[in-house]
Design goal:
Number of strands: 11
CATH class of the largest domain: Alpha Beta
Helix content: 40-55%
Strand order of the largest sheet: 1-11-8-7-5-6
Distance between the termini: 44 Å
Length: 287
């Protein structure tokens, strides 16, 4: 068996084409979705990432604004900027790029963003709404993973999903989203003693641990769907995931590559959330 690849870059592009048409329709109704991305400091990886976000906005017609603040910006000043855009009706989404400098509390900043503009899906109110199955902005990477699985018409309901990793950004919320889709979900993490045995029971295995080639074929049930969320840089500069791709490819039915797998979906779902926010704020398609 050679696994069929779930190519996130292709799924993302198809979604962006649809979004472009939707934004065009919204503009005819006088609604221009707007996203403000705020970055503090000059972390090269973060700068590259936020520029990618504003470029993606342009692609689909969203009004993307990048606010670059110096490293020494105080927490108070950053809170002022967030408050300004909370009150700005032309702004439908606010994203503060993490990590922040040590003197600024990430928790305080995330909680300062209006839940109605929290298109990253990190505000405790959105997390709570997601947990209880209410309308919410879903965290972008987990949301993207669900969309990738659905794009391949893979049944989720009744399947056993094993999530390796329990971060607040990916592990915990992705498990909840699969649970919301009626899967049975098991979490594994660094304290799980029999991880290999549990992982091998998974119909859908989601790996987000940040360790290069951590998962080999002895963790994978034949015919499983394997979602690799890891992004690790090898000595030669190339990117690789948390899953040993060559081994997984021989045994899984479906597999996400790294790069061009989960990554492109994250920014795409951020755009989706921004469009949703614009629609919700104007009572368009509200249910």
């Amino acid at each position: 068996m050679v696994a069929e690849l779930i190519k996130g870059n292709e799924i993302a592009q198809a979604k962006r084409n649809e979004m472009k048409e939707e934004v065009s329709r919204l503009k005819k109704e006088g609604i221009v979705p707007g996203l403000v991305v705020i970055i503090v400091g000059e972390n090269p990886a973060s700068l590259s990432y936020v520029k990618g976000k504003t470029k993606a906005c342009k692609q689909v017609g969203i009004d993307g604004k990048l606010i670059e603040l110096p490293e020494e910006t105080s927490e108070e000043k950053l809170l002022e900027v967030i408050h300004q855009y909370n009150e700005d009706e032309s702004c439908h989404g606010i994203l503060v790029q993490l990590p922040l400098p040590d003197h600024i509390s990430e928790t305080a900043i995330i909680e300062a963003i209006s839940p109605e503009k929290d298109v990253d899906g990190f505000h405790p109110i959105n997390i709570g709404r997601m947990m209880t199955g209410q309308r919410a902005f879903l965290p972008c990477t987990p949301y993207g993973i669900i969309e990738m699985v659905k794009a391949k018409n893979i049944t989720i309901e009744g399947k056993h999903v094993v999530v390796i990793g329990r971060s607040n950004i990916v592990g915990k919320p992705v498990g909840q989203l699969f649970l919301n889709e009626h899967a049975t979900v098991t979490y594994c993490h660094s304290r799980t003693p029999n991880m290999k045995e549990i992982a091998k029971q998974a119909d859908i295995l989601v790996v987000a641990v940040g360790k290069m080639n951590f998962i080999g074929k002895d963790y994978i049930k034949p015919g499983a769907v394997v979602i690799d969320v890891g992004i690790n840089r090898k000595d030669d500069g190339k990117l690789t995931g948390d899953v040993n791709f060559e081994e997984a490819e021989e045994i899984a039915a479906y597999l996400t590559p790294v790069p061009k797998g989960v990554g492109p979906m994250t920014i795409t779902m951020l755009l989706q959330n921004t469009i949703l926010s614009a629609k919700w704020s104007h009572q368009v398609g509200v249910h």
